[in-house]
Structures are given as structure tokens and as C-alpha cells.
Amino acid sequence: MNRRNTDIERRSRCLSDGQHGEGPVVYWMSRDQRVHDNWALLWAQQESIIRRKGLLVVFCLISDYPGATLRHYRFMLKGLLEVQAKLHQFNIGFTVLEQSPEQALPPFLRRIDAHALVGDFDPLRIKQRWQSHLITELTMPYFEVDTHNIIPAWTVSAKKEYAAYTLRPKIKRLLQSYLTDIPALKRHPFACAPVSSVVDADYLVRNVVDRTPGEYNWLPAGEAAAMQAAVYFVRHKLMHYAADRNNPCVEAQSGLSPYLHFGQLSPQRLAWLVERSELSAEVIEPFFEELVVRRELSDNFCLYEPSYDRFAGFPDWARTTLNQHRNDKREYVYSLAELEEGTTHENLWNACQHDLVKNGKLHGYLRMYWAKKILEWTSDPETALEYAITLNDRYSLDGRDPNGYAGIAWSIGGVHDRAWRERPVFGKIRYMNSAGCRRKFDVDSYIAMVTWRCKSDII
Question: Is the pLDDT of residue 416 over 50?
């Protein structure tokens, strides 16, 4: 009898019991689109080997995912094409279902008489809705595995954390126990009945609703490219991260967030590489703070705050101060179209927006400034939140993500922050402006760099 790996087991939980079917174990791949370093796939393989079953990976593709454009679909599908090829090498089946999970999975799983369903964890509202529907519809057992966080979100905390300082000690108590090497996937010993599994990107994107022209060709998609980029960062750029991470004129940030968002790179594998680098703890700690504490804090926020993308999700003190300044006079008020086109009075903000549109990713420090100016230049905080989320989700490769929602809520609504000196419009929300940016980095060089990028079409 095969024994269960406890390191795999403790990252899972049973969402609903049921009657095991005679067919394969099915892994519904969603947030974590990779073959290696995937605890959910490892859990599914462990279960299928113990039960002597085939293993099938299913991806559900919808053409109108909120905020996603043709650019995002193209990047994702390139990665899934690699997933399909690698799974074939491991004798694991793969198929794409062209409907939402709540529509496609129940009849599909009944048709193949699935032994069990395994899903990866995602705290966002749309994924939680799909999950709730599946729990009511499925007749076989349904398990969830958190392979996106180093410590499962439900394990590290059972409540919404106030700030990083309340979550950090909980993570530190558990981190060394959970930050392990990740077992290798095995060639699967039991065949799965053939299922149509051709990933044809041109065919699959035919119904995508938002067909924003152009692709982000500067970043190759897929887990092989993601791992190569991670290794390069750790070896050549991590040493400069602590000193230069807030300077967008210097390439000190990792640039890995699109890979992390689409699950093409395991955060745990990245943390494992960082921890085993030859750099001192003082050098790697700032990056570890972002990769582990801040990223898992974002998942915590979205998991336990139903209004993570609404004014109601702001802390009490922030809602109070923003309400007190709701009728303050705004010197400038811009429409969504004016912001989207980057035609405000402030050259730095316009450069940020052009960079976001062109590059598909805005530097982390500038994204805070960018969002706070939207608060200053719109009629009310609700509009500011709506516009910031719309622009970030539409243009950033790492949009539609807990990091984005938590970051915008921090910038506009004081989430995970504290009260600061009171100002017009902002109230006690932390203030940022272009003058502060000039003290951090060479603003004119950044604007020139973005202008050159846009004109030269190098990205």
C-alpha cells in the first residue's frame, strides 16, 4: 500500500464528501498553471496512485473573465500549451473545457465517473462562487490544495489580518516547517482514457470579449521561461533589490509577478531559491517580505474580506476620514477615458499610465503613486477605486489578482496601513505626489525611458 506524504496532505482540505467514482482522479487546474512544483497536482497524483487510477487535468476557459483581455488570454494559453506537452510526457491527461467551471465540470465529471475532484486554492470572489456551486452539485469527493501560498491561507490565519505586522509573526512561526523542497512529479503508472486535449490558442481565443490589440511580446510565457527568469533574478539581480527596489530607472525588481499571477512559477520554489542563495539575510529579507508576507497578506485580505474591491472593505478609520473629505474641492477631475489615455496635467502620471499600457506592468513603487493620484483626481473614493481596478486589471499582466486588489485598497483606502497627517481629499490616507517621487529617483529619466519605449516599440 502506498503511504500518503504528510507534506502534501497538510496543504489540502476536503470541501465535500461523496461517493468515489470508477474513473480517473481529476485535477481542475485554475490558478496554478504549471506541472512542476504544484502541490495540487502532486496531491491528485498521490491519490490516483493509491487508488490505482488514471489522472486527468482539466482547465475551464471562459471568454469573458472579468478584466481580462486578448493579451492576457494569449499569455495564458502559451503557458497552457507547455502544460499540455509536459503532462503528456508524464502520462497524464489534459483537456480544456470551454465553459465556466460551474457549468462544465458537473456534467463532465459525471460522464467520466470521476473518482474525485481536486482544485487549487483561490480567494477571489468569482472562484469562491464557482467553488460553492460545485460543492452543491458534485457527487464525488472534492478537495482543495493551496499551492499558491507557502503556508495554506486557512492554516496561517483563520481571520482577516489588520496589517503585515499582525500576520508576519504567524508566518514566521510556521515558515521553516512549510518552506521545504517540493517533490518531483512521477511518470504516472496508470493510463487515463483519451480525452480531446488540443490547445489551439487561435481557436480558443475566438470568443474573447475584450480584444485589445497587440500582445506583450517582451515576456516569454510558460513555466520553463518562468524558472529561467527566477534563477536569473536570484543570481544576478537579488543582490541589488534591497537598495534599488524603489527606483524604476534601475532594473532591480524581479519582474516575476506575471509568472506568479498565472501560476507558471511556484512562490515556494522561488522562496526556496532565494533562501539558498549565498546572499546574507539582510540582503534577501526585503524581497522575502514582499514575496511571502505581503503576498500572503493579500490572499488573506481577499479570502476573509468579501468587499476586497469595494469601499466597504476599507477599515473603519479610512472610511470615516474619506467620508469627512468626500465633498472637498478637487483641483482636477478626470474621466476614465482621460486616465486611460494618459492625458492628465502631470507628466509623471501620464508616463506611468503609458508604461502600464505598453509594458503590461507598472513598477511597484509607481503603482502606489499612480493609484493615489486617481483618488485625488476623481469625484469620490468609490469612483477612484473602480477606475484604478479597471485600468490595472485591463492592462497589467499581473492584474485580476489579490496583490492588485490589496495594493489598490492600500493606496486608496488605507488597508493594511495606518492614519497619517490629515490633508484635503485624502483625509488621513497616506499621501504621495510627484515631488516625493523626485526625492526617490530621477523622474525625468523615467519619463524619457517610457517615451523611448513607446516610440521605439521595443516591448
Answer: yes
Closest CA to 39 of 13, 7, 16: 7
380 shares its domain with 244: no
Say if residue 281 is in the same domain as residue 177: yes
The upper half-sphere exposure of residue 9, i.e. CA atoms within 13 Å in the direction of its Cβ, equals: 5
Express each pLDDT in 284-304 by its tens digit: 999 999 999 999 999 999 999
Judgement on whether residues 154 and 111 belong to the same structural domain of the protein: no
User: In which band, very low, low, confident or very high, does the pLDDT at 196 lie, cut at 50, 70 and 90?
Assistant: low
| Residue 458 banded pLDDT, cuts 50, 70, 90 | very low
pLDDT-above-90 percentage for the chain: 88
Alpha-carbon distance of 298 to 428, in angstroms, equals: 22
Residue 197's pLDDT is 66
CATH code at position 288: 1.25.40.80
Of 238, 273, 280, give the one whose Cα is nearest residue 255: 238
Q: Answer whether residue 215 shows pLDDT above 80.
A: no
Residue at a domain's end among 148, 173, 194: 148
pLDDT in tens, 217-261: 778 999 999 999 999 999 999 999 999 999 999 988 999 999 999
Shared domain check, 320 and 369 = yes
Do the domain assignments include residue 210? no
- Among the three residues 304, 332, 361, which one is the final residue of a domain in this structure? 304
For residues 156 and 143, state if they share a domain: no
One domain, residues 390 and 329? yes
Structural domain boundaries enclosing 325: 311-454
Say how many CA atoms lie within 13 Å of 332 toward its Cβ: 13
Rounded (10°) CA dihedral 38, 41, 44, 50: -80
